[in-house]
Design a protein that fits this description.
By secondary structure, this protein is an alpha+beta fold. The chain has 14 helices and 16 strands. The protein folds into two domains: 303 residues, no CATH class; 120 residues, Glucose Permease (Domain IIA) (Distorted Sandwich). It is elongated and about 100 Å long.
């Protein structure tokens, strides 16, 4: 179950976002400036597989019948039922090889994800609190212009309905340059970028493990800054050089800013955190009179990225069938085979006969001799025999690769090869074969391999007081 969730919500979307980013890069020039709408759509396409996977897993839990398509799977047939005890033991030993031990760490991955995401969320909430404090303590200008003056080496940024400008930047820029910086922040407010930047920050918290999505969120921020730069220069084409100079001054005054990077990414700023290459790109785009005619056709990359979602959805559907099948199996096996006390659950234990470490491939239910045993699901009797270890034994083939085995019986109440229905009595609990007392040793096989009966009959989940028998 955990493995399917990790594949559907983690690995598959991670690979898809890597491929989407590669396609996006293939259809743009090396120095292409990001375009706001394009970058937002590409980010949405990267997130869609996660939403699809969540829906498929939810359907697998709520409506498993819809999620169990007839996909061919290997079935060993009746030959698997006739496996000897030695063969079954060798299979279980192979399953618990060093590879199994390596895979045992998979259940810890959700814990690791949750811990890192929680730390990132706390940092983000703290950053937003710092921004609110700065905005609240900033002094408004005498005229009601929505501009507030903050002390300290902070960048100019838009927050709520206000524009926060540091005092040192106010004195370091000329009146015309300051008006251009404020125009940039007003453009952010008109576009609703304050909320958009917060959304990007939360996406980075959720997808902290996905470097491709985090790269795309950075591209979205840069595209938003470029879009606001374009609005400013379009309204003041003669002020391109002055506007570029104002950004350089803002960079100088923001150097050594007291705000951490995680805080600055929460809100649109006139100089959002970026590398020197992105800053040069902004200056180049500001000074460029027109950028038309140099872009490669981006719609091709977007169409290819969207087309990638279709086969990805198919793969996620197949992977999501594992929990769906488990849920449907739990409904398929609807009757407890016997009433009693679980004395030894499925898994590792000390063999009560030899005292050596062993793996228990079934569930032992302690009870009185003669206690009725019932078929947990409809099926056909395929094996009735007696041997020195298992005593009187019965096996039923339920179809779809499932076989149940009942050993140490006192009596079998159905004929060999008979068809049985769920809830029909098939045997009586006994004390035959090698054991330490009257009990039923109940096993479930899936395609010839023993599985924990509690996965198909959750009512047989062992209690903490269970002990070996």
């Amino acid at each position: 179950m955990i493995g399917s969730v990790l594949m559907v919500l983690g690995l598959m979307p991670l690979l898809a976002s890597a491929l989407i980013l590669a396609i996006h890069r293939l259809f743009r020039e090396r120095d292409d400036a990001p375009v706001d709408g394009v970058e937002k759509r590409m980010l949405a396409v990267m997130i869609v597989p996660v939403a699809m996977g969540a829906v498929l897993l939810l359907l697998a839990r709520l409506a498993p019948a819809l999620m169990t398509a007839p996909i061919p799977e290997y079935s060993a047939g009746n030959d698997a039922v006739a496996m000897t005890g030695e063969a079954v033991t060798s299979v279980s030993q192979a399953r618990f090889s060093w590879v199994t031990w390596a895979l045992a760490g998979i259940p810890l991955l959700p814990v690791v994800y949750a811990v890192v995401a929680a730390v990132a969320a706390i940092r983000l909430l703290r950053a937003q609190s710092v921004l609110r404090t700065i905005a609240r303590m900033a002094l408004p200008l005498p005229a009601d212009t929505g501009i507030r003056i903050a002390s300290g080496a902070v960048p100019a940024f838009a927050w709520g309905r206000h524009i926060i400008v540091p005092q040192r930047l106010l004195t370091g820029l000329g009146a015309d340059q300051l008006e251009l910086v404020i125009a940039h922040e007003r453009a952010h407010l008109r576009r609703g970028d304050t909320g958009f930047y917060t959304l990007l920050s939360w996406i980075e918290v959720i997808f902290w493990f996905n470097p491709f999505i985090r790269h795309q969120t950075a591209r979205c921020r840069l595209a938003a800054e470029l879009a606001c730069d374009a609005l400013v220069t379009r309204a003041n084409p003669e002020m391109r050089q002055a506007y570029a100079a104002s950004l350089l001054t803002a960079l100088k005054h923001t150097a050594g800013a007291t705000l951490p990077i995680s805080t600055q990414t929460c809100a649109p700023t006139v100089f959002s955190p970026s590398n020197s290459g992105e800053f040069r790109m902004r200056i180049t785009e500001i000074m460029r009179a027109s950028s038309m005619g140099r872009k490669r056709p981006r719609w091709i990359a977007q169409a290819m990225a969207v087309a990638l979602i279709l086969p990805l959805a198919g793969a996620q559907f197949v992977l999501s069938q594992n929990p769906a099948r488990a849920a449907s199996d739990a409904a398929f096996f609807s009757v407890l085979p016997v009433t009693g006390t679980i004395s030894s659950p499925f898994g590792k234990r000390t063999d009560p006969l030899t005292g050596a470490p062993a793996f228990h491939e079934g569930i032992d239910v302690r009870g009185k001799i003669g206690t009725p045993i019932y078929a947990p699901a409809a099926g056909r009797v395929v094996t009735v025999k007696t041997d020195s270890r298992n005593g009187l034994m019965l096996e039923i083939n339920h179809g779809d690769g499932y076989v149940t085995r009942y050993t140490h019986l006192n009596k079998i109440t159905v004929d060999d090869t008979a068809s049985v229905t769920a809830g029909q009595q098939i045997a009586e609990l006994g004390n035959s074969g090698q054991n330490t007392g009257p009990h039923l040793h109940f096993m479930v096989f899936k395609n010839g391999a023993p599985i924990d009966p509690a996965t198909v009959l959750p009512q047989m989940q062992a209690t903490p007081s269970s002990k070996a028998m």
